[in-house]
Write a structure and sequence with these properties.
Radius of gyration: 23 Å
CATH architecture of the largest domain: Alpha-Beta Complex
Distance between the termini: 51 Å
Helix content: 25-40%
Strand content: 15-25%
CATH superfamily of the largest domain: Enterococcus faecalis V583 domain
Strand order of the largest sheet: 7-6-3-8
Number of helices: 17
């Protein structure tokens, strides 16, 4: 195009940079497109060159990790009490979500969950007594992830809590998770009080034995197949679990009716599961945990096997860097808040449930569950965009977990720390939001981006190991 005709032709803008400039052009009547370009992330000077030199080794390690993830067969095989089955669990141990943290750095909802747990255990009769005991140094705190377990939101697991046992049949390892309490005033959101304690006791004394007997009757339940079906029915099995819970209900209900002699207990358990759309979350999480744990300790791999949050820090672990934690401050989600609450009330992101995204589900599969994006003011196009972007930072695609809206394309699987850093694209997570003060509970739900910091640290640590 010559200079003579340039200004007599329709203006068409290609914008690289601040998106508001493109929007201003559109409002003025000009045709404009936005280039999704991001500046490079700062890393240690030699890290990029080291990883480039070791690319063939890394790719081979990553393929091994992907093969292990793809081959995983998570099955629900039983229930038991935490102290009986979780490795390293003692009467003075309380497990929590996210990377390691001490009482003095814990956020409000995590402290609230611990205090509620101590009252539930009978270690304290009041919240004040529980708080004093929690801060006394007599309780040992440890991440669920370091004990083969996961927990939503605060992630609190105390010794007497019933847990579900998921067995990765292909590789022989197990994972554990508590039973889901439902919504409202619940321990996992940091709430405490008589209502919380009574529900936990009912879960221990009624829900747990009824489910345990029913599962003994059904035999192992294939969670991988159930998750695949749920994706086809509108779930992403993190923030939306209606289909997964319905499928589990269908599998377990006949066995409950068959094995439970007390009609009132059977009815109460069936009604509890039926009224709790998030019941399946506490199955999808340990299913992902069992699969990803089997892929640990593959030297040279740049794939993440853990993403988690404790309400203070966001933590990442890689398959190729052993048990090292890479952390950065957790961020506050963009959310739709319940009436009377706002972002000012929200605690930074919290929970082990990002294990679903780490396994290629949750926000990575949100194109299968556009209803979630609508809930926070978005559109179906936004859901598709989120998932398409996650393909940019993953090493492969699931063979089992497929998205109907993408012509049954496999979900993006295997977060590659190199791609996160080099493309400056962080994982997207859909999540619930807890009030920042202990005792209040859930105040909303929304979407949050992982911070870049942990991925930069993991990138640099892997480079040092491969130097």
């Amino acid at each position: 195009m010559s200079i003579q005709t340039l200004f007599s032709s329709p203006l068409r803008v290609v914008n690289v940079g601040i998106e508001s400039f493109k929007e201003a052009c559109v409002q003025a009547g000009a045709e404009a497109v936005q280039v999704d370009w991001r500046p490079p992330v700062d890393v240690a000077p030699d890290a990029e060159s080291i990883l480039a030199k070791r690319q063939a080794r890394i790719e081979k390690a990553n393929q091994k990790v992907l093969d292990i993830i793809q081959a995983g067969t998570p099955k629900l095989v039983g229930l038991d009490i935490a102290r009986n089955v979780i490795p390293g669990m003692t009467d003075n141990t309380i497990l929590h979500a996210g990377p390691p943290i001490t009482w003095d750095r814990m956020c409000g909802p995590m402290r609230g969950g611990i205090m509620a747990g101590l009252v539930y255990e009978g270690r304290a009769s009041t919240i004040e007594e529980a708080e004093a005991l929690a801060a006394s140094g007599k309780i040992k705190y440890a991440p669920c992830h370091e004990h083969g377990a996961v927990g939503p939101m605060a992630g609190i697991i105390t010794p007497s809590m019933p847990v579900m046992i998921i067995h990765n049949e292909k590789f022989g390892n197990r994972a554990f998770c508590t039973l889901n309490e439902g919504l409202g005033k619940v321990l996992r959101y940091g709430a405490f009080g008589a209502e919380v304690t009574q529900r936990l006791k009912w879960m221990e004394n009624t829900l747990y034995p009824v489910l345990k007997a029913a599962l003994a009757h059904t035999g192992p339940i294939d969670l991988k197949n159930m998750i695949a079906q749920a994706l086809h029915m509108g779930d992403e099995v993190h923030n939306r679990n209606r289909a997964g819970t319905s499928l589990f209900y269908r599998a377990i209900a006949p066995a409950i009716v068959t094995t439970c002699e007390n009609k009132e207990d059977a009815t109460a358990v069936l009604n509890f599961i039926n009224g709790n759309d998030h019941f399946f979350l506490n199955l999808s999480m340990p299913a992902c945990k069992a699969v990803l744990d089997a892929a640990r300790d593959v030297p040279g791999s740049s794939i993440a096997v853990v993403m988690c949050r404790n309400g203070t820090d966001f933590g990442v672990q890689l398959a190729g860097t052993g048990n090292l934690w890479f952390t950065a401050p957790a961020e506050v989600p963009d959310a739709l808040y319940f009436a009377g609450f706002s972002k000012d009330d929200a605690n930074p992101d919290i929970g082990d449930s990002a294990i679903t995204e780490t396994g290629g589900l949750g926000g990575f599969a949100i194109a299968a569950a556009p209803a979630i994006v609508q809930f926070v003011g978005g559109s179906a196009a936004d859901a598709l965009r989120y998932t398409h972007q996650m393909y940019e930072i993953t090493a492969g695609e699931s063979r089992m977990y497929q998205i109907p809206a993408l012509d049954f394309r496999g979900t993006p699987t295997g977060i590659d720390v190199r791609k996160v850093v080099e493309k400056n694209i962080v994982p997207v997570i859909d999540t619930g939001v807890a009030h920042k003060q202990a005792g209040v509970g859930q105040v909303g739900a929304g979407i949050v981006n992982a911070p870049m910091g942990p991925f930069v640290k993991g990138y640099e640590a892997l480079a040092k190991m491969l130097k």
